[in-house]
Automatic annotation (TrEMBL):
Transcription regulation in keyword set: no
Organism: Candidatus Sulfurimonas marisnigri
Family: Belongs to the LemA family.
Transmembrane stretches, start-end: none
Keyword presence, Iron-sulfur: no
UniProt name for this protein: LemA family protein
Pfam families to which the protein is assigned, alphabetical: LemA
Membrane topology, as annotated: Single-pass membrane protein
Lineage, uppermost ranks: Bacteria, Pseudomonadati, Campylobacterota, Epsilonproteobacteria, Campylobacterales
């Protein structure tokens, strides 16, 4: 076998390995995003129960409840992009956090067994979402590294692979918690 044929076979093997690696990383991102989507759907299914449970107590926060309901409806629309889902997730997380803070102002509501159960369930789902987001972000980071690093970036460009967006926390959650403010 000639040297040029051996070199050609090695190049083909390397190209096939790079191609398969990129396809595997893309599929991994899609698979993990589907897991995130499943947990988000679970949260969106729970939101009507939460809104129904707290709405009669929280007349003053009616606009907040309407916002959560609107965001939930928007998130359940078919064929929305992954980027839009990520943005909606951040808005829903922020709005749900505001509801949970508002619940603290209603002693009767806070003591209600159904609301306590919903809070507990929401907390569990938020933990699942957090774990799924971490897995997704790691997968996206691996994928983004693969499509940007040499030599796979050339093949990724030829395959028209684009950077994926990671989940990021909302701006309000980046601030330090002022414990002194919480006790006032």
């Amino acid at each position: 076998m000639s040297t040029s044929l051996i070199v050609l076979i090695l190049i083909v093997i390397v190209l096939v390995l790079m191609y398969n690696s990129l396809v595997a990383k893309k599929n991994q991102v899609e698979n993990i995003f589907a897991s995130v989507d499943t947990v988000l759907k679970k949260r969106y299914d729970l939101i009507p129960n939460l809104v129904a449970s707290v709405s009669k107590y929280m007349e003053h926060e009616k606009s907040l409840l309407q916002e959560v309901t609107k965001l939930r409806a928007e998130a359940n629309k078919p064929n929305i992009s992954d980027e839009h889902k990520i943005a909606l997730d951040a808005k829903v997380s922020s709005a749900l956090g505001s509801i949970m803070i508002a619940v603290e102002n209603y002693p009767e509501l806070k003591a209600n067994e159904n609301v306590m159960h919903l809070q507990h369930t929401l907390h569990e789902i938020e933990e699942q979402i957090s774990a799924a987001r971490r897995a997704y972000n790691q997968s996206v980071t691996d994928y983004n590294n693969a499509i940007e690093m040499v030599p796979t970036n050339f093949m990724a460009s030829a395959m028209n692979y684009k950077r994926k967006q990671v989940f990021e926390i909302v701006e309000s959650e980046r601030k330090n918690v002022d414990v002194k403010e919480l006790f006032n």
